[in-house]
Structure formats: structure tokens, C-alpha cells
Amino acid sequence: MKLPETSEWVLHTAAVIAQLPPGATVSGAQLSEHFGVPGPYLSKQLAKLVRAGVLIGSTGPRGGFRLARAPEHVSILDLVAAVDGAGDPYVCRELRQRGRGAARPEDCTTPCALASVMREAHEAWRASLAAVTLADIVAGLPDSVLEKNRRLLLAATG
Question: Which of 74, 76, 78, 71 is nearest to 138 (CA)?
């Protein structure tokens, strides 16, 4: 499965927001500059996270984005689903019943074995992402990374 580049942006953006003290906000422009990504495109992704209830966005001189809930309550699946959807990427079009080699309808009374395998893989992938939270990601970062990100992002707001 290949996710769009913006999925990576969302994952890193949410992880860096989770590194900030509770209640601290960071602007879309700061995040865009911090990661060297285009601001307008990142803003669209951040808006999706707000709509999904992952982030809270505020306006004004002290405005910006912050987590809507504690990092231990935001899974990686929450982030991916917010921007890329939760649907199964594999769609079985019953190719086994088409063309010169078409199987007889009576031989196709159960779901396609390939569709079943792909569905199981998708569910395993989702379960894996659901089992990891932003708190888990932040806990695995070196202190030097945490200190640098906080210094760079909080200095710009203070």
C-alpha cells in the first residue's frame, strides 16, 4: 500500500505537536517552515485533522494548532484515517468471473480467496496502526530531539 506524501507530513506534524507542553499551540506556518513543506498543502491536511477531532485550531495572535486529546488517546490509525480515509484499498471486481477463463457462477459462491487475503492484510495493518499512539512515538524519541523541537517551536510563539 502506498500512502500519499501528505500522510507523512501529518504523522510528523502530529508527533511534533505531541512533543509540546499541554495546551501549547503552533501555527501552520511554523509547522510548514519546521518541516520544509508547502504551507497551503499542509494547511489542508491540518484542517482534516481538526474535522476529525484530532487537533483543535484557533485563530488570533496566539492561535495555532494543539492536540484535541491527550497523545495517549491519538493512534496512528486516527491520523491516517483522518487524511486518507478508512476504506479498504483493495476492491475485488470479480475478475475470476470475467473473460475467456471465467469461473462458473456456481463456483463463486464464497468470497474470492484473493479478496479475503487482501482484507485480512488490511485489517492487520489497521490493527497495527491502532495499537501505536502519539505518546508511544514521543516516548521513543531521544531527549535531544524533544528539546530541539520544543525550543524551535515554542521560541517562535513566545
Answer: 71
